[in-house]
Design goal:
Two copies of one chain form a homodimer. By secondary structure, chain A is of the alpha/beta class. Chain A is built from ten helices and 15 strands. Chain A has helices at about 15-25, 35-45, 65-75, 110, 115-120, 130-140, 155-160, 190-195, 215-225, 255-270; strands at about 5-10, 30-35, 50-60, 60-65, 75-85, 90, 105, 125-130, 145-150, 160-165, 175-185, 200-210, 230-235, 245-250, 270-280. In chain A, the strands form three sheets. In chain A, strands 1, 2, 3, 4, 5 and 11 form a six-stranded mixed sheet that branches. A five-stranded mixed sheet of chain A has the order 8-7-9-6-10. The radius of gyration of chain A is 21 Å and the shape is globular. The interface between A and B is large, with 37 and 37 residues.
Chain lengths: ~280, ~280
């Protein structure tokens, strides 16, 4: 008998995070549902789960900076990534009809990605909740056909809601990138589960010294070694006004010699740098 | 008689945006209060106000990407900047006391910046509203001493609420940067109001071509001309998955020769670039 992998997600069953977890780990998992990302990272520290699946970036909403902050403070490392196409549905109770709906609950980011829907349905009021799938659970439990939720089709299926309208998102180019995290140095679960396919990618964070041209010099350590970047994002540092951390993804593995050389060079010219993980691209 | 300057802000009177407006324009202004940033930018297009004051970046929460997106689509330019220290207060009705409070309303960002307060007061439930000052207006109007709001002291004064606790923010290094915006090419209001003090700063946005080392080359156009950057931030571009826009602040004026040369060089190696404004640093 295969042992189920304890997998922490933020939100409920039927959420996009569960879909990402299944995509990365298969069906043989036991979900540990957390109401916030703080709770999720706290649970990983206590060992409540072996793997955490967290959204880190969305093509429309941008990086989820809070999760980068929590990742940086945690003792976790990135062991895999995956992308999910986000398709939002209007979901109601089994007897609901679109024209009856007066209130729609969902996560603020999901509501924000369906602005056009609310412009076309002026009688419908948007209301914020902590999770898309949780909103479906709530409206089905309350049973009011005038109240709907916005979430993925999987949430409707899981909580027995009715899909009233599909693809109500403004922009079809809506993808979310998820990281799989494990305790640093462990890598037990993902390494055993699936072959490392795709070219390697390495995520790291660094803080530039506060001198002119500092970022230019930091990027030169990669450019001079023909290491390509697939992402760079700056993040103001907590408690240090107008100082920035830079999050960078390299299209090389952390164990390659040129990466090792670049990282050593980077340490010479920065105050702080840390590798967050090295994993196969998807 | 001096004519009052019509000034658009998001939120209510007594908000941090009103404080920023007063700091930049003095007391002689007529506020145009908007319930969302979309409404604010729409109103500026119609000519409902001459100047808009919008928050663009916070030292803890990061850039307000939505406002960068709206600025890019608008025909507005940045004509000034200012910084405001954000001090959050717990505010109640006149007869309220801290230990009676059970619910606290505020903007999600403000609630997020007072996590420690909620950890210390487990009996208090946080509830999201669209504006800090609007939350104070609501709780004073409703008159329930068990319901409080988190906002600046100015909001308590304006709506006659009672400050129950000061500086409840987790981190004292909490500053918000605001832009003053006017119709591009006009610059009537701010230019007439106050002398351009401080060294010049120029804000611009560009999109790199999707080739290796593209960002490194873009930064070289500034580094090679000794132009210092005070900010760089990447932003995923709507509808173009995993492509990024870069928002950069240069510590030079747009009319300086080396800036002109750098911008011409930048246009050679980018798909798209645009100057968002050139204005004195504060």
């Amino acid at each position: 008998v295969e042992v189920k992998i304890k997998t922490a997600i933020q939100g409920e069953r039927g959420s996009f995070s569960e879909q990402a977890a299944t995509k990365l780990l298969g069906k043989n998992l036991e979900l540990v549902c957390c109401s916030s990302f703080e709770e999720l990272f706290g649970g990983m520290k206590r060992g409540d789960a072996e793997v955490a699946i967290v959204p880190i970036e969305n093509t429309l909403a941008g990086s989820i900076h809070r999760n980068y902050d929590l990742l940086l403070e945690s003792g976790l490392e990135i062991v895999a990534e995956t992308h999910l196409r986000i398709e939002h549905c209007l979901i109601g109770t089994q007897d609901a009809q679109v024209r009856q709906i007066r209130r729609v609950l969902s996560h603020p980011v999901a509501l924000d990605q369906c602005r056009e829907f609310f412009r076309r349905h002026r009688a419908i009021q948007a209301e914020e909740t902590y999770d898309t799938a949780g909103a479906v659970q709530q409206i089905v439990r309350d049973g009011d056909p005038k109240v709907g939720a916005i979430a993925g089709a999987a949430a409707a299926k899981h909580f027995r809601g009715k899909v009233l309208s599909r693809n109500i998102e403004d922009n079809s180019q809506n993808f979310t990138r998820f990281f799989a995290l494990e305790k640093a140095g462990h890598r037990r679960v993902l390494a055993g589960k699936r072959p490392a396919r795709g070219k390697p990618k390495t995520s790291l964070v660094f803080r530039t010294k506060n001198v002119p041209g500092a970022l230019f010099r930091c990027l030169s350590v990669f450019a001079l070694r023909d290491i390509n970047l697939s992402k760079i994002e700056s993040r103001p540092q907590h408690g240090k006004p107008w100082q920035y951390l830079f999050y960078v993804d390299l299209l090389t593995g952390a164990d390659e010699e040129r990466t090792q050389n670049a990282l050593r060079h980077l340490r010479e010219i920065t105050d702080f740098s840390k590798v967050l993980g090295s994993y196969p691209t998807l």
